[in-house]
Amino acid sequence: MRYQDLENSTxxxxxxFGVILALAFLWVIRDIVIVLLLAVVLASAMxxxxxxxxxxxxPRAVSVLAVYILVFAVIGSIVYLMxxxxxxxxxxxxxxxxxxxxxxxxxxxxIGGLTTNLDLSEFGKQLFQTxxxxxxxxxxxxGLFNGLLSVITILVVSFYLVAEEKGMKEF
Length: 171
What we know:
About 80% of the residues lie in helices and about 0% in strands. With about 170 residues, it is mainly α. The model has no long low-confidence stretch (mean pLDDT about 80).
């Protein structure tokens, strides 16, 4: 039996079933699709700067590496400048948190019952022991390496897309 010989209702059922299968497949490979989309976005952002270097007779691979080094240097500088301020602010918050809780109790008396038995050290221990619903250290470690592998994959794929002369144009 050929597709043209089927009734319209049967054709519609097949089309709906095909769309559902395609969406289910995309849901299963969503992590791969997200990595590829991020790599394409990164490669698209790097393409003009790499073309500028190419006009100055710098090889594409060297210019891509130079752009990566430049981006990492800028991000590293920003993080380097922010870390001391962030550490100082967290330290100040830790020192002033009991005062803030007391001020909150004074302003909203109804909340006093919720904060009277609050032990900050115990709260901190519980916070770090039961992050994400009590997942194990192994689960968190696997998640960290999974994220790190995704970042490396994005960087490598975008490198190849930009380093190839027609990589982004043919993609």
